[in-house]
Amino acid sequence: MEIVILPAPSDVARTAADAIEQQVRSGPSVLGLATGSTPLGTYQELISRHRNGGLSFASAQAFLLDEYVGLPSAHPQSYHSVIREEFVDSVDFAAGAVHGLDGVAKDLEAEVARYEAAIAAAGGVAIQILGIGTDGHVGFNEPMSSLASRTRIKTLTQQTRQDNARFFADLADVPDHVLTQGLGTIREARHLLLLAMGEAKAEAIAAAVEGPVASICPASALQLHPHVTVLVDEAAASRLAHREYYQDTFGRKPAWQGL
Fold this sequence. Notes:
Elements: E1 2-6, H1 9-25, E2 30-33, H2 40-53, E3 61-64, E4 66-68, H3 79-86, E5 98-99, H4 108-121, E6 127-130, E7 152-155, H5 158-164, E8 177-180, H6 183-186, E9 191-196, H7 202-210, E10 228-233
Helix pairs in contact: 1-2
C-alpha cells in the first residue's frame, strides 16, 4: 500500500482526481465508481476538469460497486440514480457506458453472474474508487466477508443501515439487502484508490493499513493487492502508528505520479 496523508479533504479529492484523470487521458479506460459521501469531492473535481480543462470520458466505461436490492433504477436512492446525479450526467460518458447491478432482477443469482461476466468482457477495471465504512467495510462487504468473495447478495449490518439512514426518510426505508462486488472481484482491478476523510474513519483506516489481514476488517484484504493508493486527510490518519513510513510530507508526489 502507498499511504498518502494530505492536509484536508479538498487535497484528497484533488489527488484522487489526478489519478483518475491520468488513467482516462491514457486511452479508453474502465473505471470503478463508488457512491456515498466520500467520493463526492473527487467527482466535483472531475466535473470541473471536464468543463474547464477538456477532460473527456467519451471513450471510458464504468462499473458501479453495488446496488440496493428492491430499489428500481429510477428510485432516487438507487445507486444508478445517485451516480447519475453526482457525476455521470455532468460529464460525457457515452450512452450505455456506465453499468450497474439490477436490484430488482427476478433472478439475483443470475444477475450477479451477468455482472461478473460484463466486467471481464470489458477487460477488467483499470482504476477502482473505494471508500471505507466505520467498521472497515468496502463496497458492501461487511465484517466477516470472505476475502476471496465475488459479486453476490449480502445482508447489511444494522450499523451500515444506520450509517446510510441519512440518505432516506427513515431507517425503516433502508433496504436490508444489497448486491455488491466481492473482495475478490474488487482486488482484480489494476489500481485501487481508497479514500477516507475525518476522525470517524481513523480507526478503520488504521485497522485496514496496519492491522492483520482478517475478515473482521474487510478493507485489510487490500493489503494483498499490488497497487493500492490510500489517500487520507490528517483526521483520518490520526490513529496510524507508523507515519514515518508513509507519504505525509505534503509536497511530495504519490509514486504513481512519478518522482
